Amino acid sequence: MSSVPRVRLSGGLEVCRVLNGMWQVSGAHGAVDKVKAVAAMQAYVDAGLTTFDMADIYGPAEEIFGQFNSQLKSRSSGNDSPALQSLTKFVPRPGPMDRKVVEKALQRSMNRMQVDSLDCVQFHWWDYRDKRYLDALGHLSNLQQEGLIRELSLTNFDTQRLEEITNKGIRISSNQVQYSVIDQRPAARMEHFCLANNIQLLTYGTLAGGLLSERYLGKAEPSSRAEINTASLSKYKNVIDTWGGWSLFQDLLVALETTAKKHDCSVASVATRYVLDRPAVGGVIVGCRLGVAGAGQHISDSLRSCSPDLKLQQEDLAAIEAVTRRSRDLMALIGDCGDEYRS
């Protein structure tokens, strides 16, 4: 098993700095074979990538994790079984947020994941105008104090709301946000607040759904549904369009590939390392297309990205930032982190 670097969240949970993202089993990336998905998780654990990120709305993700974790324990004796870290999300529909509603949702996740308590609950809320998110977080905080939750975290909250919640005395361990060499909005406001309040950023979209790879270097702009055939590709192609378009994106890929060749690694590893090195970033979530037909595993890229011998130098950063400086300001166009999910 490789020695994958870890970060300790404020409640004491240690997670890998590269997390295995399970959005890809939600159904929006192709049909999922649950048996194959469970089996595919073993290769990640064998590589030392033991942290899995999922959500109650990611289709069978929690059930797949639960089945794998149960099988892993049954195959191992005593302390032979590597400890897994499971981060899930509580993404409620708008409505009353009394304690029973919150408890029921958490119990459902625990049943699916086959656990007695939750390592980390990352709370998402769709509409800031509905202030019942504070009710939900109050109950989650109480349940944390009672031992049902180890880490209480957020997903796609902006800096203003993060500050509001923290000022209410609710301890937040992390905030999961979009962050990449393309989308650097967290650097505008959020990083500073997180550093001052011991909050880690867990980032997604860091590889732009796979677009930040050699596969797209020198290629014509994809436009058809056959070319943009997953939820990730569609989402991040739109981000690229807003950021600066395909021509500028090609310039970015050239800069990333030049750096990758210099360090004998992939474009994906450089793009991941770039974000891992940002202030307040605890970890990067890399999607795993577990049990999806035609999906490749990119474990070696993930391991290389967090290897201590991959060190981006000032000249590497200057070459990358010479391109990103020519892009549009996503903070001005979209707003703070998570604003793309709210009207």
UniProtKB/TrEMBL annotation:
InterPro entries documented for this protein: AKR, NAD(P)_OxRdtase_dom_sf, NADP_OxRdtase_dom
SUPFAM superfamilies linked to this entry: NAD(P)-linked oxidoreductase
GO molecular function: oxidoreductase activity
Domain NADP-dependent oxidoreductase, residue spans: 19-323
Listed Pfam families: Aldo_ket_red (PF00248)
Name this protein carries in UniProt: Aldo-keto reductase family 1 member B7-like
Annotated organism of origin: Sparus aurata (Gilthead sea bream)
High-level lineage: Eukaryota, Metazoa, Chordata, Craniata, Vertebrata
